[in-house]
Design brief:
This protein is mainly alpha-helical. It contains eleven helices and five strands.
Length: 296
């Protein structure tokens, strides 16, 4: 087989052409029924062939025919292209290898209404806040917390998660840190993981005795001298506007957490659906579809 990626892609597509066969009634026959699809698949397979060659010197018809190589490529592309392009790549490769592949979700920001922040943007905003607000910002981003949940942080040994829920053991896979609990919507108490460096800074601000904090008319027993709730949210917005020139609100930190975790779990071999379910529990949801809001 030719070593040139372009010629490999053209050959792979030529083997699947069925231009004289109507698409209606034959959509699942693994063939290509239009010139437009042929051109699109040729371009997609050219990129895949280049990846295979750079990975191990192989071709589309050897290493590139293996599902594991295909999945490596799709996960690699997930950080480079939007969902539409990623789906086209998957469809072209499926056609070539004759096997269905799991859907991989793009984590590249393609939606102008996306509410997430990058890690560098979070650092800039936190640095422009007071210590109490800046630490809260970093924890909210690294642990996926709501504004009011910052006021409810407790060590895991002090309060366990709600026992009426079935928690997946896959939570926090691939991450290390200290486990705490927070109380979220509906009184649900869940575990969260805070990276060791942030946990150390948090413990340095532990109160000698819990104090009452009130946010939007609701009272909380606060154990750490950090801000949360509406006070923190206002500080975040003001600091973001000063440093970035815009703000998507403090809740956008949860969007960033969810998107990063979804990508991490998929890179570690978890299917998209299982990864979404795991992230849902980490951010305090049991309805996976609700979590879709955070993945845009």
């Amino acid at each position: 087989m030719g070593r040139n990626p372009t010629s490999q892609a053209k050959q792979a597509v030529a083997q699947k052409l069925a231009l004289n066969t109507p698409r209606h009634g034959n959509s699942n026959d693994g063939k290509i029924h239009s010139l437009g699809t042929a051109r699109a698949y040729t371009q997609a397979l050219k990129g895949y062939a280049e990846f295979v060659r750079e990975s191990n010197g192989g071709s589309l018809f050897r290493a590139g025919a293996k599902p594991e190589m295909a999945m490596n490529y799709l996960h690699h592309r997930a950080g480079e292209v939007g969902q539409k392009t990623l789906d086209l790549d998957r469809q072209a490769i499926q056609m070539h290898i004759g096997q269905q592949l799991p859907v991989v979700r793009s984590f590249k920001e393609t939606n102008l209404t996306c509410r997430s922040y990058t890690s560098e943007q979070v650092k800039m905003v936190a640095a422009a806040q007071t210590i109490r607000n800046g630490l809260a910002t970093e924890i909210a981003y690294r642990s996926g917390l709501r504004a009011h949940e910052l006021l409810t942080l407790q060590r895991l040994e002090e309060r366990g998660p709600s026992p009426h829920r079935k928690w997946t053991p896959d939570r926090f896979t691939g991450r290390e840190g200290e486990r705490y609990t927070v109380q979220g919507k509906g009184g649900l108490v869940r575990e969260v993981m805070i990276p060791k460096d942030l946990a150390d800074r948090l413990e340095a601000r532990r109160l000698a005795e819990p104090r009452q904090a009130t946010d939007r008319g609701i009272h909380y027993q606060q154990r750490y001298d950090i801000n949360g709730g509406n006070r923190w949210s206002k500080s975040f917005t003001m600091a973001a506007n000063r440093t970035l020139g815009w703000s998507r609100g403090g809740h956008g930190l949860r969007h960033g957490y969810a998107q990063e975790r979804l990508a991490e779990l998929q890179r570690n071999g978890m299917t998209y659906e299982n990864a979404k379910g795991t992230v849902a529990q980490e951010v305090g949801h049991f309805d996976k579809e609700t979590t879709d809001v955070y993945l845009r």
